[in-house]
Amino acid sequence: MTPGDGTFRTPAERARRHDLDALRAVFLLFGIPYHASLTARPGPWIANFHDRSIDFIYLADYLHLFRMPGFYMIAGYFAAMLLQKRPVASYLPSRLHRLVPPFLAGTFLLVPLMHFLLLCITGNPDPLGRWWEIMTMTERNPFEHLWFVQVLLYCTAGLAALVWIFPALAHAELKGEQRNLVRWFIPLTLATGLVLGLCGLGALQLERYRYLNNFAVNFLSARYALDYLPWFLLGAILQRIPALDRRFARFSWILFLTGLAASIIVAFYPRTVPFLWRPVLTGVAALCLTQASLGALAHFIHGERRWVKALVSASFVIYLFHEPLIVLVTPVLDQLPIPLWPRFILLCLTAFFGSYGIWKLIKLSPALRYLFNGERPKKRSKS
């Protein structure tokens, strides 16, 4: 059976999803142009170019619209897949080993070092004093770009707890061809996008009316958790319905054009949409674009590819280091007598190749691989 035929995935096809692996890595790597655009858009960030352009507001908003929802959806899919293969007692420790060391290393090593070096590079007269002020600001999220790992830990622990309380969920699955679900796939997807958007609206309202206090928002990342938990659950549910799983991986022009139109309206013409409807339209756009991205990738990636494997293995470390590189390189590139857009592109390339080079160095040390990528050394088999 070819990847485009039929209405459900065979067990062999579902054992390893190289297309989802690739898309998850791509969503992580989209963090590079996203954070680089923050240096060039109007308004303060950690580091900024002297020249600014409103174009980069649009770029940042567009990238952020779908990359994190898609990432958490894929994360939920793989979490459900792993819980089919392993008991909770094995699954949860393995995920904690994978996520906690890079989270702690990034939070307590990379982020503080990034701020201190930036103060030195920009010639602050009292870098240590100013650094301490920044590190102790109560309105600052101490995890910065690593908040997504914190939320992923919440989702991972929550799903593991759910399966532990209800063991039948470990292997629960809606089998068969599910012809009605497949037949109504497009309206079902659009309706799901609306529901996800309403969840986002609810999270927005909780923060807007201060039901989430400063500690919940900045230290617990509660707003992010409320935004992305539904996407994580959607991915887990999709993995347990093989018929929809397979259909979701087939490109749909209707969903692509719908997502494209909705995303353009939200990102470039937000004032045409009432404020309370923007999260709803965003949910539809994010789900449609995620489906279209997966459908396009799945058309070309049916098995293991060397570049996919290299991209997937490096993506976490690239994400970990790309923001510090962007922040530290921005003041240097700001001295170049070139227009803003070429400077932005050069910043993206520097962040990508620099963080990829760091990954190549980290690979040489088992201790560094565990610290920054959560890879535990493989046990040697006893002869």
UniProtKB/TrEMBL annotation:
InterPro entries the UniProt entry points to: Acyl_transf_3_dom, Glucan_succinyl_AcylTrfase
Species in which this protein is naturally found: Sphingomonas kyeonggiensis
Phylogenetic classification of the source organism: Bacteria, Pseudomonadati, Pseudomonadota, Alphaproteobacteria, Sphingomonadales
Coiled coil: none
GO molecular function: acyltransferase activity, transferring groups other than amino-acyl groups
Full protein name: Glucan biosynthesis protein C
Signal peptide: none
Enzyme Commission number: 2.1.-.-
Listed transmembrane segments: 22-42, 62-83, 103-125, 145-169, 181-203, 215-238, 250-269, 275-298, 310-329, 341-359
This protein's UniProt keywords: Membrane, Transferase, Transmembrane, Transmembrane helix
Keyword Transmembrane: yes
Entry keyword annotation includes Cell cycle: no
Matching Pfam families: Acyl_transf_3
Stretches assigned to the Acyltransferase domain: 18-359
